[in-house]
Design goal:
By secondary structure, the protein is mainly alpha-helical. The protein has a domain at 12-121. 79% of the residues lie in helices and 0% in strands. The protein contains 13 helices and no strands. Helix 1 packs antiparallel against helix 13 and helix 7 runs antiparallel to helix 8 (207-223). The two termini are 14 Å apart. 50% of the residues are buried.
Length: 360
């Protein structure tokens, strides 16, 4: 394994940050199940109302901040995932939500600073996209800290994840670079997403955001090299399947928002989970065999069982969206439980692969 770069944080000190992130993930999943009527243990009664912040800010804020800090190789950048991990911990332990929101806001500010440092070193479309995602997250956190409910700032939080993924796919598109015209279209789509997130804040013309999500899904489906690598074998094909299926769920989320006219009613749950579970976690499943070894310096040898969490994830989303469509609370609750099973399978699959790599 490669050695730590000068000034970087040693791997053993990264592990507690990762653990903090997964604590938010597990607590957020339990809170989501409790909201659907399942009798599950919660770390505090307050966690019931903080399902979204724990998942988006506590978990993803920590792991994306950790990934960005590792890529940057500067110790100060690790303050971002530390603050996010502690913010998630404050939320799940029942501290006043403002204290958790303040820590998360601090973590997102550090992430934006780290991303802007990358932009200064490499002025490219993908780094600017990453910066816009980080800036959206910081703005959403500050507005939440100022008293706006998560349902109002959720589009800004979604921008954080959607634009981060889009930026990372742009970075990896050097093998099949987009044309100047395609880059112009991408910029227009990003502008629509930003305008749509403002519309959600104002609770007017919210369908603009759905248009941006659907357009981005079509752009990624058209431009991503996964259209070609899906014909390969092993890990390469698995990653491509994750990417292409994730883009399909992003399109579904955008279409639901367009059809429902905004983030409200049954369309709220369906659109959010199509994007944040279907799209985002498909990306997580596909990129974990690459990113996890880079962050904690372990091997994750390919195994066909990687497909199991992905398959269960897709089945769970079909159940959940069917429950939303029919107004069937039991079907919705069943979809939520299978959602949780998919994430549990992913964690077990990842640990199993790490153990296999260690034995080799």
């Amino acid at each position: 394994m490669e050695q730590n770069r000068a000034g970087d944080l040693p791997v053993p000190l990264r592990l507690p940050l990762l653990i903090l992130g997964f604590m938010s993930l597990i607590s957020g999943v339990l809170a989501g199940l409790a909201r659907l009527g399942w009798a599950v243990p919660l770390p505090s009664p307050q966690a019931l109302l903080l399902h979204g912040p724990l998942m988006v800010c506590g978990f993803f804020g920590t792991v994306i901040g950790l990934e960005r800090a590792v890529a940057l190789g500067r110790r100060w950048a690790y303050l971002g995932p530390l603050l996010c991990g502690l913010g998630g911990l404050a939320l799940l332990l029942g501290q006043p939500w403002q204290s958790g929101a303040a820590l998360l806001s601090g973590g997102s500010a550090v992430l934006l600073a780290a991303t802007l440092h990358v932009v200064r070193r490499q002025r490219e479309l993908f780094t600017a996209t990453l910066a816009l995602g980080a800036a959206s997250w910081l703005l959403g956190n500050l507005l939440w800290l100022g008293g706006m409910p998560p349902a109002v700032v959720v589009a800004l939080w979604m921008n954080f994840l959607v634009l981060t993924i889009a930026g990372e796919r742009l970075e990896l598109s050097r093998f099949l670079p987009p044309s100047p015209r395609a880059k112009t279209v991408f910029l227009l789509i990003v502008a629509v997403l930003l305008a749509g997130s403002v519309a959600v804040l104002l609770q007017q013309w919210e369908s603009i955001y759905g248009l941006g999500l659907a357009a981005l899904a079509l752009w990624l489906l058209r431009q991503d090299i996964a259209r070609r690598t899906v014909r390969e074998r092993g890990l390469t094909r698995f990653i491509a399947v994750c990417l292409l299926s994730g883009y399909a769920w992003l399109a579904v989320g955008g279409v639901i928002l367009l059809a429902s006219g905004g983030l409200h009613g049954g369309g709220y749950d369906a659109a959010l989970h199509a994007v944040l579970l279907g799209f985002v976690f498909s990306m997580v499943f596909g990129h974990a065999p690459i990113i996890f070894p880079a962050v904690v310096r372990v091997r994750m040898p390919w195994h066909w069982t990687f497909y199991l969490p992905l398959l269960v994830l897709h089945v769970s989303l079909f159940l959940r969206l069917a429950g939303d469509w029919q107004g069937d609370a039991r079907l919705l609750a069943a979809g939520g439980m299978v959602n949780a099973a998919a994430l549990a399978l992913f964690i077990l699959s990842t640990l199993s692969s790490v153990f296999r790599g260690a034995r080799r």
